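Follow-up to my post from last week.
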Amino acid sequence: MRRHATVFTRWSRVAMAIVPLFFVLSCTENLPNGPNTFGATIKISVPHDTLVVGDSSVAQAVATDDNGRTIQSLLFTWTSADPTIVGIANPAAAAADNASGGRTMILIGRRTGRSVVTLALPDPRFVVTNVPRTETVVVGGVRILSTRDSTLTAVNDTAIAVAAGLVRSNGALVTRASQGIRWIHRGTHTSVVGTGDTIRYIARSNGADTLIATHDFCLITAKCADTAIVRVSQQLTMSLSSRAFRSWSFSDSVGPTVTIADRRGNGAPGTSVRFVPVTALDSTVAIVSAAVGTSNLSTGLVASPRLIATRNDSALVRVFGIGSDGVTIVGTDSITDIVRQVARRVQVEPLRAVVTVIDSIPYRALARDARGAVIVDGATVTTSAAGITINTVFVGPNPPGSTSTQGTLTPNLTGIALPQANPLAPQVPVIIDQALIALVPFNGVTAGTPVIATMTVLDSNGVAATGSYVRFRTSAGVAPDSVQVGANGVAAVVWTPPIIPGPYTLTGVRGAPAPLFGSDSSVRTVLQQSVVVVAAGSPDPTRSTVTVSPTSIAANATATVTVTAKDVSGNVVTTATPADFTITSTRGAISGTTCTLGVCTSTYTAPATTGADSVSVKMLGVQIVFSPVALNITP
Amino acid sequence: MRTLAAASAVAALASPLQAQKTTHFDSGIVIGGDWLQANELPLDRDALQSGQVTVSLRRQSWAVDAGWVRIARTLSTIQGGAVSAGPLLHWKSVLFLPTVGVLGGRAQASRDSTGYDFVGTGGVIGHQPRYSYSSAGTVGGGVGLTVEAPIYRIIGVRAVASQWFFSGAPLEGDRQRFLVGAGLSLRVGR
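User reply:
Got it. Predicted complex:
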């Protein structure tokens, strides 16, 4: 028993030594743990980054570990920055993707634009960076739904253009509104209002514009622009304010107000009007002026010519409205102009004149219309004179011995030119302008001696033409320079008559442009016509001569001494008298001096003794030409 | 496992085996040590393999064992004190000891629950593990069968097979352990 106990104790001790060793050895387990995270890279794999609206694209998320191996069975998170542009389909509806619905995702294009699709891997096992990818949603084309070629026939006409984008629907491209169509307007003939699918264009001017419907987000290979041509072609019509006109004076300009406009009353630039007399005869009644005034596009009013009356008759004139191209006739019409001069004044020209009492000047009686044009038909003017004699077309000379200092010519009008003969014309009383002829005495002017001629300057209306200029002409000699009419209507000019005695005419006319018509003297009326007789001046010793015949004379015989009195210009002074010179002889005697029309004669009586003698003639103490004359007295 | 349980039950009821002969190991105190890794080799970590040390109190027809049990697997370890009991059955000099036991101790496990699968070059499919370690107390129960034969005086050899079930969070989904091994017995007292 004791031996067994000893054995037991010994083996127990062995066992007791083994057991702690067993515990110690079991302390280090080395069970694996971790790693906490893995390095990984994720990316989005899509067939293309562009989606057509309504279309979808399968996107796949791919994660690779640090060894480049594709990690399976991950759950990704997909987000779209703008789900209204790029939508992400419900993962449950995505294509089957083994254990996770997040690997493959369907991207749906909802509307055009760009949106960033971000792929995330919210798995704490992996350290990854989110991956963004920009997806672009586009339209599959652009199509104009309205007409592609329209024409507006009036300015401010309005039409609309409609376009839509093409989107995918059940595999086909169909048009759909509100896809962000952008319009490009080329041209200036229309204005465009509005944006979006439907725009309104308004006609502004003739021509063609281009409207291009396009889209900022459009599939590259698609038809991304559609074009419509918008034409503006105004349909113009011409209208006249009146078609019948009457002219009561030459130079009256008449014409209708011409409007060339579309149905909205808008004119077109470049339109014009032409007046064309129907016949050559019509052309002589009224001439066509250039266009007058300015055109007004807003009303269609066109600057149009005027008919200027030139002859009493009736003229038929065609009116042609010409379009902007200068060729197209947009309208025709005709107008008539009945020209009938009506007298406003009746007068005798010249209105003022100065005439030597023994001379005459031509005159004419005439009637003028309101514009001063002479009425050449339909007016009979008779003239009555007072203080002066009328001889056919001349006035003067007055009978010898007449003492008149002024003659008066008064016109009298009869015929259809009278206002009362034309009831439609303005019934203005006819003004009668008398002609006043001043009568001056004979020989009132000395040859070569300046004189001052004064005149009252009237125009054809009998009004003092203050400030105007008067030009002069003379029948001979140098004409004076022009003078200006003073404030009182009186002009004065210094005129040097010719040195040769005789009748001369000094005519003054008012300076003005050439008359429009041959019969119209309204603007250059003769104002002053002076007919004067110029007489020689005083005898002059340098021009006067003396002759004695014969110069060899017997004692106590006689000879004739002839003195010709001439003025400084060599004119014989017909009014010379013996008092104008002195005649003396050295030994003989002078007697019986008489003068006739500038030639004076005296009788020389020789002395009783032979020998030399002489006759001397002096004027103002100066020997005249050939004086003294030597004489030989013979037995 | 079902085979082992059935065999233990049959052995426990096989009274004829009990009447044949007694041995040196059917009474007294027997100290045993077993290596229990036979059915789970290799152990892919540097750790003590599975085993147990027991002290068995035997009284001719029954035995009560108490000891320390370690069950090591590649990704888990369960170890703790165990108590088991069962009848002693004899056949010639061989002793059969079917037992029913309980274990109280600690369970440790690493689980590759968060690793990932991958497709490598050439489409080769692989797996990258990621282990999570956990440790908690555990209680287990099991049945076993020990076949013991004396080889020299107080020394015997024995073969052990047992099936265990454990509780504890670390062993979630992996609660069974089947042990097969061999060891030595040393009778240290009567």
